[in-house]
From TrEMBL:
Protein name, UniProt field: Gluconokinase
InterPro entries: P-loop_NTPase, Therm_gnt_kin
Pathway(s) where this gene product acts: Carbohydrate acid metabolism
Family: Belongs to the gluconokinase GntK/GntV family.
EC number: 2.7.1.12
Statement: the UniProt record of this protein carries the keyword Kinase: yes
Originating organism: Paraoerskovia sediminicola
Keyword Acetylation appears in the UniProt entry: no
Gene3D superfamilies assigned to the protein according to its UniProt record, in alphabetical order: P-loop containing nucleotide triphosphate hydrolases (3.40.50.300)
Region (Disordered): 1-24
Length: 192
């Protein structure tokens, strides 16, 4: 990936200790997924702080054209998302190679997008932050510091494929507090 100066994306490899990676315990990557405004950044950042996992924000991996498209109120399509998903997958693979578990935010709306992320080396697990349309609308509308307009929520919900039973993931209701959501993720991961 490109790590040119000014690139906000975290570099591969830092001083955090490698804690996973044996054959018995593969390096795990938690993908905090869901539609815009579901709380991915809030929960993932808190989780990274609590667990020491490397953290990446998928919005930082979007090419500028994608961000401009969303800012203009136009939903991304599969072609827009393909290189972005591949970069996220490759970032997780590189973390695995460095022995570093991670947590990333990524809308990962469609099953086929998650299939790309699952191609990463290591174990990729999904935490779907879900909630009522009313709650999501109120949270996304209250936000003033983000490029994503509230009008795109409907397209995000239309694109969303909930986790299938065969996927390694869990669904959490975002009516809970961020702390309680992080507790729930930690319990879920501890249970294997
Ligand atoms: N569990 C929660 N309880 C109350 N407010 C929350 C909770 N989670 C997030 N929020 C608030 O909701 C708004 C949306 O959260 P956040 O930006 O983390 O969502 P997101 O899924 O990362 O959005 P996007 O995909 O658009 O970047 C923020 O203002 C955040 O402070
Ligand atoms: O797949 C997508 O359409 C995008 O990832 C969006 O979900 C936004 O980047 C994100 O939600 C930030 O608002």
């Amino acid at each position: 990936m490109n790590t040119a100066a000014g690139d906000p994306r975290p570099p591969v490899g830092d001083s955090a200790p490698a804690t996973e990676g044996s054959a018995a315990e593969p390096v795990t990557h938690l993908v905090v997924m869901g539609v815009a405004g579901s709380g991915k950044t809030t929960v993932a950042a808190l989780l990274a702080g609590r667990t020491g996992r490397r953290y990446a924000e998928a919005d930082d991996f979007h090419p500028p054209a994608n961000v401009e498209k969303m800012r203009a109120g136009v939903p991304l399509d599969d072609a827009d998302r393909a290189p972005w998903l591949a970069e996220l997958r490759d970032w997780m693979s590189a973390q695995t190679d460095a022995g570093r578990p991670s947590v990333i935010t990524c809308s990962a709306l469609r099953r086929r997008y998650r299939d790309v992320l699952r191609e990463a080396r290591g174990r990729v697990r999904f935490v779907h932050l879900d909630g009522s349309v009313e709650l999501l609308e109120s949270r996304i509308s209250a936000r003033t510091d983000h490029f994503m307009p509230a009008t795109l929520l409907a397209s995000q919900l239309a694109a969303l494929d909930p986790l299938d039973a065969d996927e390694d993931g869990t669904r959490l209701d975002v009516a809970a507090t961020p702390d309680d959501l992080v507790d729930a993720v930690v319990s879920w991961t501890s249970a294997g």
